[in-house]
Specification:
three-stranded antiparallel beta sheet; alpha+beta; about 300 residues; elongated; 11 strands; 6 helices
């Protein structure tokens, strides 16, 4: 007997940021030709839906985690071993049917973890991370100049002596007389605000060029492509040495489904449509409707 969902509880959350000039562009009303009837509850839903937002039944004949062929009645994917009804994120508790959490971008499958590890070895990921660290430094300098603070760099005024070196130098009687004096000096920088802004703008452009060069392996399923792009951002964040969540500029996923910006691909309600990473300020309105369905299966 095929499983059927019981104890269904569906909540819809709509998040909207008000920038009126973009609002109309992002309102999405499916055309009649883009809809179909759910075979289980007969609700009118979009053809692209993998799960019915009304009753929670799975509607596609493939695994939403890896893309392998899978009957609608199968409870577990034979290819990747993931359950058809999805899994809850161990970090935030959100129910997911894909390899990265749609709320916090936590990797949920072995394939997702491997994708992150592979991405961390990618020279382009390392380059993007280093460039983003540089942008963070430039952003701090620009803010200092705009608020009237002089640009200063702290540099060592004499070599720093390690504990091991100090013991040897004391034994030989070669310890510098002023060794306990201040070991740093403040040097004022002479760059202008215009120079810093030009360097900043050029660096941002170069980062976007690097992000645009990320391409999933040939033959990847839409689900594998989704995991590939999600892994890139996680890998960059893990590689960076300077990371501040309050930075004015960040990497956003611009989805092809609606042209909205998201913090990662998993937040788009239609990730199979694809998208691209964009490094910049959050510049468009995001209007997103997500369906959170809690259910359990009984035989």
């Amino acid at each position: 007997m095929s499983p059927s969902p019981t104890n269904i509880k569906t909540n819809t959350r709509v998040e909207e940021q008000t920038q009126t000039k973009d609002k109309e562009r992002h309102q999405h009303q499916p055309k009649p030709s883009d809809t179909k009837e759910c075979p289980y509850c007969h609700a009118q839903i979009e053809k692209i839906n993998e799960f019915c937002p009304e009753c929670g039944h799975k509607l596609v004949d493939y695994c939403t985690f890896c893309g392998a062929s899978m009957s609608r009645n199968d409870t577990v994917c034979e290819e990747c071993g993931m359950p058809a009804e999805g899994i809850k994120c161990p970090k935030c508790g959100t129910l997911n049917a894909r390899s990265f959490c749609r709320k916090c971008n936590e990797p949920l499958t072995r394939a997702a973890i491997r994708a992150i590890e592979k991405a961390q070895q990618d020279p382009k990921v390392k380059k993007a991370a280093a460039m983003m660290d540089k942008v963070a430094e430039l952003e701090k300098k620009i803010t200092q100049m705009k608020t009237g603070q002089p640009l200063q760099t702290v540099k060592p005024s004499q070599p720093i002596i390690t504990k091991a070196d100090r013991l040897v130098m004391e034994m030989l009687g070669t310890m510098p007389k002023q060794e306990e004096a201040a070991k740093t000096e403040v040097v004022e920088e002479s760059e202008s605000l215009q120079q810093l802004q030009e360097e900043y703008d050029n660096m941002v452009k170069d980062i976007n060029d690097v992000l645009a060069s990320f391409v999933p392996p040939n033959g990847s399923t839409p689900q594998e492509q989704f995991a590939f792009f999600s892994a890139q951002k996680v890998a960059i964040e893990k590689t960076r040495t300077i990371f501040d969540h309050h930075e004015e500029i960040s990497a956003y996923w611009v989805c092809k489904a609606y042209g909205c910006t998201h913090t990662d691909p998993s937040q788009c309600s239609k990730p199979s449509k694809g998208g691209t990473w964009y490094y910049g300020k959050h510049f468009v309105t995001e209007i997103k409707t997500e369906h959170y369905t809690e259910y359990k299966y009984e035989n």
